[in-house]
Structure prediction request, 385 residues.
Amino acid sequence: MKKRRLFAALTAAAMAVSMTACTSSGDSGGAAGSTGGGGETKDISDIVVGVSVGNTTEERWNREIEMFRQYGEEHGFEMNIQIANNDVNRQISQCENLLNQGVDVLIVQSLDAEAAGPIVQSAHDAGVQVIAYDRFIMNSDLDYYVTFDSFKVGQVEAQFVVDAAPSGNYIWLKGAPEDNNAHLVADGQADVLQPYIDSGDITIVTEQWCTGWDPNEALSHTENGLSLAGNDIQGVIASNDGTAGAAVEALAAQGLAGTVPICGQDADLAACQRIVEGTQTGTVYKPLAPLNQAACELAVAIATGASDPMSEVDSSLGTWQTLNNNTKDVNSFTVDVEAIDASNIYEIICVRDEFHSVEEVYANIPQDQWPTGSDTSGAASSAAA
Prediction:
């Protein structure tokens, strides 16, 4: 099996990007057609795409930084990437600097959906269009949005837990209140949970937001919920794998890890390991490659002056719709998500997408218990995980 690059290597590469990834080689093709949106046509080799990443504290963002860098290299244009390190003001300042440096289009993974609005205004003042990446930018004249179906993420998370524990006391850990995606995830969770709550089958012992998706807050909230319920907890709703991991830590301290269903999102390596170990029920896998490719294709189409940038995005990657950011209906490209548990993690995560290697996912499992056919050393493996 082809060995997936280790997360540590991606992290090192990502940090090295802080960041301008420049290349003069590669494909000179692309969407360099007729003018669109009032801009002149440019050859792909002459464009500069600015990327602002709000943080790299979650595993996925380091992967995506590397994907952005590689796309620029492979297609022969400059990808100028900046990381704000969880500082909203720094992100705004970095975007101003990117605009001053003359980027042709700006991709923004915002830290704060509301605070990022001025970035859009500054970009438009400079004649630059903005693509919100994964996280919406609210109350602004945003040009485009490329994202996952966050409402579905919440539905899948809650369904995992409800299927395993349709009644009892629950701890509900929501995501970052400043991230609009967290609200959409919570709405999806509520869509599944509310009928059970209304019927009295499920009682929410504690319901808390985790600012900045902070696992430390999730740990504290879970500990408080366990204390309030005297450890009588049947389910935990967590909004991503980081908060789920913290909740599992709190459960483990009380001897409950593996007995209380819990699900996250992102398919972080640690979460995948917990799934095969039996301490996390599932995760919502959000395929990063199609999301990143869609954003890059859209950015190139805008920057080269394509007459219809939306048509330049590969339709097999997702679907176009409009989502309202309280100012306008924004053209939004949405990529689907998948439910992952112990029954399909090997086939999807390790084999189909090579998102993590089998050696990584099953690192804490005896090799004779790895899925059939997964023994990369040539020795026979005997049991499915």
